[in-house]
User: Fold these one by one.
Assistant:
Number 1:
Amino acid sequence: MTRPIIVFDLDGTLVDTAPDLLDSLNHTLAASELMAVDEAGFKRFVGHGGRVLIERAHTAQQRSLDVAEHDRLLKVFLDHYTDNIPGKSRPYPGVVEAIARFEQAGYLLAICTNKYEANSLALIEALGLTRHFAVIAGQDTFAFRKPDPRHLIETIKLAGGDPHRALMVGDSQTDIDTAKAAGIPVVAVDFGYTERHVREFEPSAVISHFDELTLDLAQRLIAAAEA
């Protein structure tokens, strides 16, 4: 029988990257002579990758972007972010222990994120966590990305897993909608990057610390989805 698999979102779920993403966003906004945003403002813009992050931040300040300028600013953002990996980014409390817990129980682990694949790989490597994940799939790994359910399903298949024996863990409506569309149960963390409480998006379960991501919870959710 195929091993069960847990697929994690990255930013705001496994790793608190907000300080570094915010620094890079504000560096980029300065290049457009726009005002910096604070952490609360950042949370309104995040969730669909750097390009959308930049677009939303400009829209909030009534600034439109043509394609060429958008491309230029995305490069400014990515260069600044890449040059500073891992920066202040750190795994959330309990992440390392949860990884060990599920590995010892025979689970496959993977990451499905709307961060670019190269930056995702670089971050996980810099944090010393690469060996734990069968696959790290970014927004450019496939021709589609979350909330398209194929991003999650193909990540699972690439990792050698079975979508019918899978669990998603994320922090946003995007993650929850993706998992639901894929027919996969989803645990939402309530400490990530979303303005509204994740409970409003009706995930399968909500946790406030990775200590709450237990083997029993994962087994129950996967079994219920299989039934």
Number 2:
Amino acid sequence: MDSVRMVTQWPAEHVAVAVVNADGTVLGGHGPQDRPFKLASVTKLLTAYAVLIAVEEGAVEWDDPAGPPDSTIRHLIAHASGLAFDSDMVQARPGERRIYSNTGFSVLADAVSKAAGMTFADYLTEAVFTPLGMRDSRLDGSAGAGAVSTCADLVRFAAELQAPRLIDPATLAEATGRAAFPGLDGVLPGFGRQRPNDWGLGFELRDGKDPHWTGRTSSPRTFGHFGQSGTFLWVDPAAGCACVALTDKPFGEWAAAAWPTFTDAVLAELRS
């Protein structure tokens, strides 16, 4: 794919990208596929997937109390618990606002860890990394922002998000195909207040958000996440593909401008 070479214009020392279809075939790639990168909040996709597995295994249930009073596992994974971004402060009642929260994901991981009887890092490895062959991935820090991985490993994960083997497809459809606590307003980090700021079960939903880090031609069904370390992973079911991009240049104005243009070019090339 010619479009993937657009990343050579990005202001990062190291960039690795890949476009992958549902069977795991890489349609195009550029850069060091096996180089480890810090994922920042793309970590949340991996954590969310481990939670989906934990729910299917019966280790936790969506309505289990967790976090602030009246909050549940479902509230935490959908950024609707009322917890602040990076502290234990409660800023709203559960289900009233979409407050993007790293703390919420740490509380979520603690609940799974307690139920599974192991550290969350070990659970993530056993539930997601090992069965998908993600040998170069690990959780070094928080469940919301502490993972390290490679483009090659995330290609495997992106294939799983399009044709799940570890969970029931209906579970993935619930997590990515409709909003949890729909209609809540909130701030999408880096892109301002969104009305609504719909989110799935751990997966950010494209819907009609504007501005956004995906493309203007991305379908409303697109889901995924980006990270402040200069990383993203999106899946566009309408296009039948996913895209992974990892850099060592922190998110900023460069990314807000470059990523949508890049995504639109990838989608246009796939349609041609």
